[in-house]
Design goal:
single chain; alpha+beta; Endonuclease, Chain A; 16-stranded mixed beta sheet; two-stranded parallel sheet; 14 helices; 18 strands; globular
């Protein structure tokens, strides 16, 4: 194998990434408890501009659950709720403007969060600016998750500042802090993001301001530089002076062609792998990625492939739409796996309850780490708006992060995992050696029957559409024949669901 010093970089600007920029400092943050704590400290240090680019925001969440006093104040002396905290931040920093850009479809997905959003927008500070992003084709989603502070520090990954995201890496069963606003318990949740400083923060600031302009028509000027170092003292630096590739998915819109840098980076990374491909994703349904993984499994002596997914989706419809596709991918990959090199698992707590996986990560050998907002489904490859980051080395950063993730899932110390990995010389063998049959660990995922609705959704990819490179989009951005087909299909799904319900009702026990 070539040494990392002589190997040609996998990153190709304008092909599998938008830009490569330097990160002076980089931290990898696992799970929202640590992220919300770090985000809070950054918000208190930013002086001029704070850009929130997100799928959803919930301004009523407590950023530090269980740490409020009787007045709702956190230990740092500021309101614990996100919305009130942002208000306090602009009062504290007289030159600070906060820009919050949220996917317009999130209003439909979570209408209960709309009232506090309107209140903050209408009655809050005039230096807090809120906009809904509808600048995408019908049915598509703005899915990027970026926070930029004064162009000096940026968070980019998979964590949304919304309800049901908070959890610690311990994923304690029945953790009283893991609770929704209505008092009901929230499920264990695994997620990840990153914090970076340097030119990469400036680049992501530019990308975010472009997104704001496209959504609103308003041009934001880059904030003037300040001498303040805003990196939190207690946020561990995992790497310094590393080049970071920024990759995007953007659907065709306003005459611009499809941007599918993320898909190309996935495929290039899979092709480059020699030892092991480690994936964490909310879904596992991308046709192109499945084909690339299948090709590697058919080869003699190719890399091991380990996928971490949630056991089930967040709703029955989503489960039917996405996990029937996942089941078909699992069957395809197991059929190609002639050397026993493929595994797919879901994590569980010490009590055996499923931990929902929302992280979007791929680690290739000890060489490439990719983390961002994109899922392994067709939407993220060519329909929704996404942003991922990737680094090539250093080796200690990449192998250390993989050990950190897997030791969390297996309930062991990272040092223990590394020791067993060195002994076994196989990622799969190390996992299976440490994977306890009960309690905290990883459990095998098997395909489930398609069912009437699931089979229809999988065959049509009704909820997982995409544009293809070079696809003709000259019909404009309004309702197209494909959109009418989607609407008709949704009506058909509803009708099928009603028929299945009636059949089950008639065949049920009678009094």
């Amino acid at each position: 194998m070539q040494s990392s010093n002589t190997r040609t970089s996998i990153f190709r600007v304008n092909e599998n990434c938008w830009r490569v920029a330097r990160a002076e400092r980089m931290a990898l943050i696992v799970d929202a408890a640590d992220y919300f704590r770090a985000l809070r400290k950054i918000i208190l240090r930013v002086e001029r501009e704070l850009l929130f680019i997100g799928w959803d925001f919930d301004f009523e969440i407590e950023m530090l659950p269980g740490e409020s006093d009787s007045d709702g104040v956190a230990p740092d002396g500021f309101p614990n709720q996100l919305g009130a905290f942002l208000e306090a931040a602009v009062k504290r920093a007289p030159k600070l403007n906060i820009y919050l850009l949220k996917w317009n479809g999130a209003v439909v997905a979570a209408p209960g969060r709309w009232a506090p959003t309107v209140a903050l927008s209408m009655f809050g500070s005039d230096r807090i600016h809120f906009a809904l992003d509808g600048h995408h084709p019908f049915g598509a989603c703005h899915h990027q998750k970026i926070v930029v502070a004064d162009d000096k520090l940026v968070f980019c990954g998979g964590i949304d500042a919304t309800e049901d995201r908070w959890d610690t890496s311990e994923h304690l069963p029945d953790d009283p802090r893991r609770v929704r606003k209505d008092g009901s318990a929230s499920d264990p949740w695994h997620d990840a993001t990153s914090a970076l400083t340097g030119p990469v923060a400036t680049a992501l600031g530019e990308l975010s301001r472009r997104r704001w302009h496209r959504a609103t028509g308003d041009t934001l000027e880059r904030p003037s530089s300040t001498a303040t170092d805003i990196w939190p003292d207690d946020l561990d630096v995992d790497a310094t002076d590393v080049d970071v590739a920024i990759a995007r998915t953007e659907p065709p819109y306003d005459g611009a062609p499809l941007t599918n840098e993320i898909e190309r980076l996935y495929l290039d990374s899979i092709e480059a792998a020699t030892d092991a491909i480690y994936i964490e994703s909310q879904y596992f349904a991308s046709e192109t990625v499945c084909a690339a993984l299948e090709n590697r499994l058919k080869q003699h002596g190719g890399p091991e492939i380990v996928v971490i997914n949630p056991e089930a989706a967040l709703s029955q419809l989503e489960d039917d739409a996405m996990h029937v596709l996942r089941g078909r991918m699992i069957d395809t990959l197991r059929a190609a796996d002639h050397q026993d090199r493929f595994r797919i698992f879901h994590p569980v707590t010490a009590k055996g309850e499923p931990i929902y996986v929302h992280a979007k990560i791929m680690i290739t050998d000890a060489r490439i780490l990719r983390l961002g907002s994109s899922n392994l489904n067709d939407r993220s490859m060519g329909f929704d708006t996404e942003c991922d980051l990737a680094v090539e080395g250093p080796e200690a950063l990449i192998t250390g992060f993989r050990a950190r993730l897997l030791s969390e899932h297996l309930g062991v110390a990272p040092e223990v995992f590394e020791e067993v990995l060195q002994k076994e010389n196989s990622l799969i063998a190390a996992i299976e050696s440490l994977n306890a049959p009960t309690g905290r660990g990883l459990r095998r995922i098997d395909p489930r029957p398609d069912g009437i609705i699931g089979g229809f959704l999988a065959n049509t990819r009704l909820l997982d559409p995409r544009y293809r490179p070079g696809e003709d989009t000259s019909a404009g951005e309004g309702l197209r024949p494909r959109h009418l087909a989607l609407i008709a299909g949704a009506a058909l799904v509803g009708g099928l669901a009603f028929m299945v319900w009636q059949k089950r009702r008639r065949s049920g026990p009678r009094s």
